[in-house]
Here is the input.
Amino acid sequence: MLDIQKIRADFPILSEKVNGKPLIYFDNGATSQKPQVVIDAEAKYYQEINANIHRGVHTLSQLATDAYEISRVKLQHHINAKFSHEVLFTSGTTHGINLVANGFASILKPGDEVLVSSLEHHSNIVPWQMLCEKTGAVLKVIPINEEGELIISEYESLLSEKTKIVTVNHISNALGVINPVKEMIAKAHAVGAAVLIDGAQAVPHLKPDVQDLDCDFYAFSGHKMCGPTGTGILYGKEAWLNKLPPYQGGGEMIKEVTFEKTTYADLPHKFEAGTPNIAGGIVLGTAVDYLNEVGFGNIQLQEKKLLEHATKRLLEIEGLRIYGNGKNKASVVSFNIDGIHPYDIGSIIDKLGIAVRTGHHCAQPIMNFFCIPGTIRASFSFYNTKEEIDEMVEAVKKAKTMLS
Ligand SMILES: *Cc1c(COP(=O)(O)O)cnc(C)c1O
Here is the structure.
């Protein structure tokens, strides 16, 4: 069992006041808060070992390089990748997806198909649309049902030998639905398609095992899992990373440069052009250590309690509808109240110190499916409490009375 008060004390921002009220932070789906160890590690890097990596023979450069590479190995073990060179540092999920989509431009032919799901974040839609425009490939979309779940029978009938890559999120950011990715990956492989999993919303809640999933690519961001902004990981199977061309050209990613011909560096450096977010990459490792110390079993238990409590309490409010009611859900509740714009509720409860997200959550196709402009999304982390949820429910009730 987690000692929640002790955990909360690790996060300095949770003792802040917003609009004169104690902060209740339920926008964890947009970004998580950071524990003091992460904040301290960032400062410590700049205070003690700041230098550019992989370049100098001098001591600081080696210390920085070692710390960066140790973090890579930490991330490798965290997601159970076979090799550390399959773990690429990126600036986030968006960067990772664009790297793969860009690489597939050299693989796809007109008439080939790219399969995305209706549950995707815009950053897992637009890069594939751009790829299709460039190559003449066709974008196909896996539909969802009224519960916000992917319709697997439809997915099966969309798969064919024309499908070259399937790209789907592990957990939906807008609804919190957990997708049956392992099963979907096996089905895609059966027709010879590669699979990219957008793990941005999964990594705060679970420890993905990329070998067990057998995904070809797995992309996620550091900032949603207690790490710094501008950090992320793209996992890719060695064979795929060898096959894809580099995404950007520049320093670090070359073996030899002449004006006649340049040869590329080995993995992972081939995909890591330029000076990266060194501090961020190192501190992402600190964030992963922190989460593992808390323990993903404990995190899931606490978040399950919060999800059940929030669902039950919110449904007490007349005219409130929750979107995404599948059995497998992360601690996200996306809802609306009849006849009231989500933005109005969000603004009123913000005055009471409660941070939720309102809008389309970068997933407009889902909102179009439900014929709504957006939702109010409360996304919980293990450091949230039932008492905070009760306060939100009272605030939403108050807002409803004011707006009806
Ligand atoms: C947040 C998010 C992204 C984009 O992540 P960035 O950190 O902005 O690059 C992509 N997909 C999902 C499901 C997300 O939740």
